[in-house]
Amino acid sequence: MTTLSAFRSFTDGLPEQGQLMPVLFVGHGSPMNGIEDTEFSRRWTQLAKEIPTPAAVLVVSAHWFTKGTKITAMDFPQTIHDFGGFPKELFEVQYPAPGNPALAKETAELLHSAHVELDHDWGLDHGTWTIVRHMYPDAKIPVLQLSIDYTKGAQYHYDLAKELYSLRKKGVLIIGSGNMVHNLRMVAWDKLNDPEYGFDWAININNKFKSLIQDGNHKPLINYSELGKEALLAIPTPEHYLPLIYTLGVKDANDNISFFNDKAVGGSLTMTSVKLG
Fold first, then answer.
1. Cα separation of 30 and 201, whole Å?
2. How many CB atoms lie within 10 A of CB 275?
3. Are 80 and 124 in contact, with CB atoms under 8 Å apart?
4. Would the pLDDT of 142 be above 70?
5. For the chain, which residues make up each domain, given as ranges?
6. Which one, 65, 118, 129, 268, has the greatest CB density within 10 A?
7. DSSP labels for 138-170?
């Protein structure tokens, strides 16, 4: 039997707090960052110490690309190993963070521009757990994922993200997880261990993206195909780029903007990440 206090907890949701939670775009790179002690994973660990402890984490991951919009709504999302060809150690990782079905329902109701399906089959893919397990290793903070509708363009996702803004007032850490420059077909595999190596086109467009973000000029970032050949090389498919659009969509006019993990990997990938707030 549902108690009155439980009913109130469900319907009232998370209370508003006195400050806006920061929002992040995180370049997640290789799944191996989830278990290795790298300059990238160390920065994720340090970042968690620099921002307020969130009431919950909501991740828009490049690796949940769906028809329509879905949000994980189970009590305990599974850890998904959505990759192949990596060491057994990586497949053995479990990140047993709880979900939050009430927050999932509340978030779905915020998104008036989309019919949001409450999902009980997905979980936390590597775009989420490889980052969050370094930030919150005790796995006690609820973690949810919001999918990316592959039938919609960047403007749609930017506008949809704006409807998530109120979650920042409730202590929800919103993370877009992907990579600004992500062209696996052009990776220089022999240069993966050289964090300073990047193709000229990749460095140029990455710097262009950063400049536009710093200037608050989001329109060219939304219409990225109009930025020329370098942008099309950086974004041959949109799934790793669109999480950045979600991050920008929940930006507040007073947010400070900073970049971290601003390195190239393998020539045609960048780990460049953004903190707003």
1. 21
2. 19
3. yes
4. yes
5. 17-276
6. 129
7. T--S-EEEEEEETTS-HHHHHHHHHTTHHHHTT
153, two tokens: 């363009």
Taking the C-alpha atoms of residue 219 and residue 56, their distance in angstroms, rounded to an integer, is: 30
Q: Is 42 helix (H, G, I), strand (E, B) or coil?
A: helix
DSSP states along 45-74: HHHHHHSPPPSEEEEEEEEEEESSEEEE--
The structure tokens 């939304």 sit at 222
Residues 186/189/190/191 CA torsion (nearest 10 deg):
70
| Residue the block writes with tokens 């507040």 | 252
Beta bridge partners of 76: none
Q: Of 84, 89, 83, give the one whose Cα is nearest residue 126.
A: 83
Q: Are 267 and 191 in contact (CB under 8 A)?
A: yes
φ and ψ of 24, to 5 deg: -130, 145
Domain over 17-276 is classified CATH 3.40.830.10: yes
**Token reading at 162:** 């704006």
Write the CB contacts of 193 (distance below 8 Å, at least 6 apart in sequence). none
Nearest-angstrom CA–CA distance, 211 and 233: 18
Q: Mind listing the pLDDT tens digit for each residue in 100-136?
A: 999 999 999 999 999 999 999 999 999 999 999 999 9
CB atoms within 10 A of CB 258: 13
Tokens of 139: 């796995």
Q: Determine the Cα–Cα distance for residues 255 and 241; give it in Å rounded to an integer.
A: 21
Residue 125 token pair:
């893919």
Q: What's the confidence (pLDDT) of residue 7?
A: 32
Q: Would the pLDDT of 66 be above 80?
A: yes
| DSSP one-letter code for 224 | G
State residue 89 phi and psi, 5-degree precision: -55, -35
